[in-house]
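**User:**
If convenient, please work through this fold.
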Amino acid sequence: MRKVTMAMNVTSIPVRPEDLWSAEKLATATSNPNCQLPHLFCYPAQSNFSGTRYPLSWIGEVKSGRMCPVSVPGKWFVLLDAASHVSTSPLDLSVHQADFVPLSFYKIFGFPTGLGALLVNNRTAPLLRKTYFGGGTAAAYLAGEDFYVPRQSVVERFEDGTISFLDVIALKHGFDALERLTGGMENIKQHTFTLAQYTYTALAALRYPNGAPVVQIYSDSEFSSPEVQGPIINFNVLDDSGNIIGYSEVDKMASLYNIHLRTGCFCNTGACQRHLGISNEMVKKHHQAGHICGDNVDLVDGQPTGSVRISFGYMSTLEDAQAFLRFIIATRLRPSDGQHLLQATPGEAAVPRAESEVQSAVPATMDRCSPSPQEDAPTGSQVWNDLPTAVDAVALHPPLPEATRTQQTPSEQAAGVPEGGLGPHVVTNLYLYPIKSCAAFEVTKWPLGKQGLLYDRSWMVVNHNGICLSQKQEPRLCLIQPFIDLQQRIMVIKAKGMEPIEVPLEENSERAQICQSKVCADRVNTYDCGEKISSWLSKFFGRPCHLIKQSSNFQRNARKKHSKDQSPGTTAALSLVNEAQYLLINRSSVLELHQRLNTSDENRKVELFPMKDLISRFRANIITNGTRAFEEEKWDEISIGSLRFQVSGPCHRCQMVCIDQHTGQRNQDVFQKLSETRERKVNFGVYLMHTSLDLSSPRFLSVGSQVLPVLKENAECHHLPSSKEHQDVIS
């Protein structure tokens, strides 16, 4: 920090712990509320040298101005170096609101090496100024002149180049293992401190026959509490005359006992000088004598250049601690001189816990997590919980796939669509996709919720890492067919070769275990639907899978800007969809693509891409019968009966349209033909969002409802035919 600030002509001042402890007692406040000159106070939550834990209360004291590290007016910000602390202890940032918190995952898990993070408080992020930029951090820049616009979010602005994404994947396994083996960070804190306290007490009690101590321990505490001391013991070994034995010799001996020690100054020269009594002049003298950081020069003129450190992690055991103590006893004492310390009861040797007590106090495994304190509220569509069970909704089972199917669906018949003809703008088909990336559930009339069609994409299948599966990775998802029964409030899931299985539509608030998942960079609260459906899915896919549902009391907000008719105070809610609440496609657009695909091979006797097949590939919620192809891209908003929707933009397609939704087989022709005819981005269909949806009474979408589009201001105006018959059809 000093070198960084020095380059910007900013003064840096070293502060000793004693200065802060004195300021804490005196509560010296010299801040001037009118002075906004920014200052940054940096300190570690835990010393990586000695394990001393400095008060987290300093964060609030310094930021509020009640305590000043240096007597200068201004506004204080706090950087809390939590790397050592969070390796074995929880840290609640909602209580201790530091502005910047660097931490190390390597110190928590031991793997991946070199991976850490900087947590930045959102309130402080706008103050950060970057003096350079690397790949991926610029919104725009020029090579020929000094023009550079950084990306908006602090993450995109500061993560230069390619991050260690393969290492990042390993973090999921690390956190899961930590939780599974220990039950959480609070248990790790108690476990590691107990081991450190035991070892410290035994180590400090070791004496030579002449009464001289075997070790000199460098500590600011008596290991009385994990609040003031972490699981680190720093020491030097002494001979019976009180002379320090160099850390290099101790390290070599330890290796013979299969014990790994850290030695030196641990990249913490300040603590090393303070505890070992090394002056600035001595450091310079040691350097002149040939000592550099990290070498084996442990003594210069009989004075130590560093020390020995042992630390405990969640995987450490009492046997590990005793093995270390046996090593010290074996190399410095006759075994009989110190063996009683390892076998004594806590009262006899002032050792806090015997082996059996440690093991019983810190169980090896615990329940991974207890039920969330947030009891699950009613579903996002709360109005439906108050309706009678006989909800007026009509569901159609998805028809059996037929490669040459040309007959009309019940939806088309209900809409009064002329077979093969192009009528006015009406809804011809309605689909919802209860499980993200799984088969469609076709209906003729369906209730709306605040997130879109009720239960549309409320569930998703995840792998054993909790990562959402899509048809890109697992095309057979389209063979999973969900059916929703609103009266019985269940979802029945079917697949070829599998017995049907039922899943309740709503979670059991007493048993639901809330966890976090990710959908399109958004974090969402979800819950696991249970082992029964997990086993069912795992058997079908041949690998571990889980079904999770978006928590009903969690709202995922759309990142799109407000529509012109939407009040600024309201935010559109999303289910587990990618972009928007609804996706609409126009049959005329599908028909044009259908003709292009099927005329490319006129000699083929069997229609390669039937209309029904093409429509299913685009996985839309609302299918309309338009008058011309791709006219929907010129719409600004639409009305369907009494409901109004804002068109939020086109749907940019990916290779998922290549997957036949009836077989799971891939065919590149659809995407290739789209890319040939649509140019640039392959757009097909448009996204819709509610505008001012009132759910005080039940609302429905129905097949046969008239669709009234409003053109964009710059769009070419054309006649939109309608008839009295269709105007009378309302939702």
Notes: The chain is about 25% helix and 20% strand.
